[in-house]
Specification:
With about 350 residues, this protein is of the alpha/beta class. It is about 50% helix and about 15% strand. The chain has a 5-stranded parallel sheet with strand order 1-5-4-2-3. Strands 7-8-6-11-12 form a 5-stranded parallel sheet, with helices on both faces.
Length: about 350
């Protein structure tokens, strides 16, 4: 059997190699679920309870006792971990990381090497990855923000721009949330804020700084997901195209979109913002939902959102270009948005 040399590599080299070599995250399942490198596979050295037991032993009895405890716990499942690695390895190669590039990744790299797998370990582990991506996401790009009142179909326009070859990131798709109090309806569970940033970096890193990047205007949080603060601050400084649409046009689209959801879920969505809407308005919206008058409920809710959005718009630091539209057609509105950006000198 050939024994492979284990190498440590820096985060930039690690990310370059990860496009061709599978990444193994050897942290515990709960650590992995909280946030991980997109595309990585979790082959944990310890499950959550085992990790806790090793940590307790370390704090009470020291390093050597913790290693012995770890060997006792992980030993019986070593064969299955190696089998998983052998099945995953591409061309006999794997990239491995734990939290700080310490004993867990070194131990698993040694184990995998016994199966003839050439392993490279991420220097300083997942912590190095997080530091790297947050630094990258704090950098400025040539960004244009698409803003507008709730219900103008901004997400559809962002997707239309992307489908037509423009650089765009759909933040709401990454967050599994449409942004408003109703934004979780029909959506899968949201990622953690930590993992959202990981997903965001995956798309951000593929876009150069020289071409315009389109992003939809969002609050600091999209549902329960919070954007990296520096990334958000840069969005506020970027030029924005603001799409305005009359209430009636927005009402028809939103009523159609949300009328199919169960009444209890719609009521719960209103109650999330009841204090900010005001008790009377929230109560009237709830009663409208219960009697099946979705258009009225949305009209009341839009009153709150429109006022809040226009107030927040005044705080924007970048260039603002306002345009009007009388249609919800994303193709037509994408054309209007591009024309406005070109006229303002934001896009060639």
């Amino acid at each position: 059997m050939t024994f492979q040399t284990i190498r440590q590599i820096d985060i930039r080299t690690f990310l370059v190699l990860s496009s061709d070599i599978p990444v193994v995250d050897v942290r515990s399942p709960s650590e992995y679920l909280a946030g991980h490198i997109p595309g990585s596979v979790n082959i944990p050295l310890f499950d959550d309870e085992e990790r806790k037991a090793v940590g307790t032993t370390y704090s009470k009895e020291g390093r050597t006792a913790a290693i012995i405890t770890g060997l006792k716990l992980a030993g019986p499942s070593m064969h299955s971990k190696l089998e998983s690695a052998l099945e995953l390895s591409s061309g006999g190669n794997l990239l491995i990381h734990c939290w700080r590039g310490g004993m867990r990744s070194e131990a698993m790299a040694w184990l995998f090497s016994q199966g003839g797998i050439a392993c490279k370990v991420l220097l300083e582990g997942y912590k190095a990855y997080r530091n790297h991506i947050l630094a990258e996401l704090s950098a400025r790009k040539n960004t244009i923000i698409l803003g507008g009142l709730t219900g103008t179909g901004k997400t559809g326009i962002i997707r239309m721009l992307s489908e037509n070859g423009h650089k765009a990131i759909d933040l709401e798709r990454l967050a599994n949330h449409k942004g408003s109090a109703f934004g979780s309806l029909g959506q899968p569970p949201q990622p953690t804020s930590e993992h959202f940033a990981n997903l965001l970096f995956g798309e951000w890193s593929r876009i150069g700084s020289e071409v315009p990047l389109w992003l939809e205007d969002e609050s600091l949080n999209i549902g329960n997901v919070f954007m990296p603060k520096e990334f958000y601050d840069n969005m506020q400084k970027s030029p924005a195209i603001i799409l305005l649409m009359d209430v009636k046009t927005r009402l028809a689209r939103l009523a159609e979109e949300y009328s199919g959801y169960p009444v209890p879920e719609l009521v719960e969505s209103v109650m999330k913002i009841s204090r900010r809407m005001g008790g009377n308005n929230a109560g009237e919206a709830v009663r409208a939902i219960e009697r099946g008058d979705m258009a009225k409920a949305i009209e009341i809710t839009l009153g709150y959102y429109d006022k809040a959005y226009m107030f927040g718009l005044k705080k924007r630091q970048g260039v603002r270009v306002t345009i009007h539209t009388d249609t919800v057609d994303p193709a037509i509105n994408a054309g209007k948005v591009l024309e406005a950006a070109q006229s303002a000198g934001l896009w060639d």
